[in-house]
Write a structure and sequence with these properties.
By secondary structure, the protein is α/β, with parallel strands linked by helices. The chain is built from ten helices and six strands. Helices cover 52% and strands 13% of the residues. The chain has a six-stranded parallel beta sheet, sandwiched between helices. The longest helix has 15 residues.
Length: 216
C-alpha cells in the first residue's frame, strides 16, 4: 500500500483551513496531519508532526509565512513548503522562494492547482501557479538577462521540453504531450541543462521566463 502524503495547513482563516481540509480529505493518497493559525503555531506544529508538505499562508499573525518557512527548513530541510496566498507581488514571491519554498499557489486557484502543486513538489520540482509565473515574468523581463547563452542553441524539441518544464509539467506529463517516454524527456532535460549551463530546474524556469519562451 502506498504511503500517504502527510500535509500540514497554516492559515489564520479558519474557514479557508476547513475548505482546504475538505478538498484534501477527498484524496486517498493525502492525509491532513495538523493545522495552525499563526506563524509560531505553524513552526511548532510542523516540527512536532514532521509532515511531507506544508501549505503556508504568507500573511500570518506574529510573524509571516516567509519567516515561518525559513524557521521550519532550518530544522526540517526536507519539508516541502507551498505558499497558498492572495499575495502575488514580486517581493512576496521572491522572498518566499529564496526562503526555500517550493510552490506558490494563488488562493483563487487553489481548487484547481493545489493537488498538482503537492504532486509536483513531492517529485522534487518547483510549482508556480500561472499567476505566479506572470509575476516572475514581470520581474525578470523588466531587467537585462544575465545569461549570455541564447535560445538559438536549442533544437525545436528541446525548446518544447523547456517550455513545458517552465510551465510546471512533470517529465511524465511532458512525455504524454509529446508522445515520448519520461526517460527520453529526462534525457532532453539533461541535454538542455548542459547546453545552457544551468543545473537546477528553477534556473531553467528563470531562463524560459527571461527569454520569453513560455508562450511559444
Amino acid at each position: 500500500m502506498m504511503d500517504k502524503t502527510r500535509v500540514f495547513l497554516a492559515d489564520d482563516h479558519t474557514l479557508l483551513r476547513n475548505a482546504l481540509c475538505m478538498l484534501l480529505q477527498g484524496e486517498r493518497d493525502i492525509e491532513v496531519v495538523g493545522e495552525a493559525g499563526n506563524g509560531a503555531g505553524a513552526v511548532r506544529g510542523v516540527i512536532e508532526v514532521k509532515p511531507d508538505v506544508v501549505l503556508m499562508d504568507i500573511s500570518l499573525p506574529d510573524f509571516d509565512g516567509v519567516e515561518a518557512t525559513h524557521k521550519i527548513l532550518e530544522v526540517l530541510p526536507g519539508t516541502k513548503v507551498i505558499a497558498v496566498t492572495m499575495h502575488m507581488e514580486d517581493v512576496y514571491l521572491l522572498k518566499f522562494l529564496n526562503a526555500g519554498g517550493m510552490g506558490y499557489v494563488h488562493k483563487s486557484a487553489a481548487d484547481r492547482d493545489l493537488l498538482k502543486a503537492i504532486q509536483t513538489v513531492m517529485n522534487g520540482e518547483v510549482f508556480l501557479s500561472f499567476v505566479g509565473v506572470q509575476v516572475m515574468a514581470r520581474q525578470y523581463c523588466s531587467t537585462e538577462s544575465v545569461s549570455e547563452i541564447k535560445p538559438d542553441i536549442l533544437s525545436e524539441r528541446e525548446r518544447q521540453v523547456l517550455q513545458l518544464l517552465a510551465r510546471g509539467f512533470t517529465s511524465k506529463e511532458i512525455g504524454e504531450k509529446l508522445y515520448l517516454s519520461p526517460r527520453t524527456i529526462e534525457t532532453y532535460r539533461e541535454r538542455i541543462a548542459v547546453k545552457l549551463k544551468l543545473e537546477h530546474r528553477s534556473d531553467l524556469v528563470d531562463y524560459a521566463i527571461r527569454y520569453k519562451l513560455l508562450g511559444q
